[in-house]
Design goal:
Length: about 250
């Protein structure tokens, strides 16, 4: 759930009502509606269609923050007050670690790309020996014949644990199938695995010999997870219905 983005003059930016360090109510930078809207804009710009905003990412997905403020303002008039500080504050407080900001004042998405982006500068340390991947019952048979390849994304996204993979899979199917990946063997074969966040890991392909059917675990979804899944499904259905309308 989105929260207001605020700034404590002593402890910096945070999301919530009060500074977690001192309890100060602090200065409001963006309300949760603005946070949600800007997050969607950044996802589109940094993951999917930068050309729609007239911006250019480098080979590793980076772009100076100052270079995206103007395009955002041009496409969304109600963000006329936006500054590079607002963008950086949103990125560094994003709870799922979707974005990365470097010392040169550049920003990029860490994962989720559908455009060609080279992420080989991500760290390769701290990767678990076993990772997990969600699929559908129908796709599982294909995976055990041909391995895992990127589908709708540029990179394969692997999860740290079974539960995370299951929850991710529920956004696509009611009964996701979970497989495990032998990371050590995969890396030894010459396929690097990159740590995008502490929970999400990227690789370019997973041959079938490194894949196993994961031991089933019981997963109970939280009310927040169920709400998010329903929202995504409703949005997908609306998009499907809209694209299926007759045009005149």
């Amino acid at each position: 759930m989105e929260q207001d983005l605020k700034e404590c003059f002593t402890h910096g930016v945070f999301r919530g009502t009060r500074c977690p360090e001192c309890g100060n109510t602090s200065k409001l930078l963006m309300d949760e509606r603005e946070v949600d809207g800007l997050g969607k804009i950044l996802a589109g710009m940094l993951r999917h269609f930068p050309e729609r905003y007239g911006v250019h990412l480098d080979d590793h997905g980076w772009i100076p923050i100052r270079n995206i403020v103007g395009p955002i303002q041009n496409h969304r008039m109600h963000y006329g007050w936006l500054t590079a500080h607002h963008v950086k504050a949103l990125a560094v407080t994003e709870p799922k670690g979707r974005y990365e900001v470097n010392e040169e004042g550049e920003i990029r998405a860490r994962y989720g790309h559908t455009i060609p982006v080279n992420m080989d500068d991500l760290p390769t340390d701290g990767v678990p020996e076993v990772l997990f991947y969600q699929t559908t019952p129908e796709e599982k048979e294909f995976i055990f014949e041909s391995g895992i390849s990127p589908s709708d994304k540029t990179w394969i996204h692997l999860s740290r644990d079974y539960r995370q993979a299951y929850v991710s899979g529920r956004f696509h199917t009611e009964e996701p199938e979970i497989v495990s990946v032998d990371v050590n063997a995969l890396v030894e074969s010459g396929m690097p695995v990159y740590r995008a966040t502490d929970e999400i890991f990227l690789t370019s392909s997973v041959p079938v010999e490194f894949i196993r059917l994961a031991e089933p675990e019981e997963v109970t979804l939280t009310p927040e997870e169920l709400e998010m899944i329903d929202q995504v499904k409703e949005k997908r259905e609306r998009r499907k219905n809209f694209s299926g309308r007759d045009s005149y």
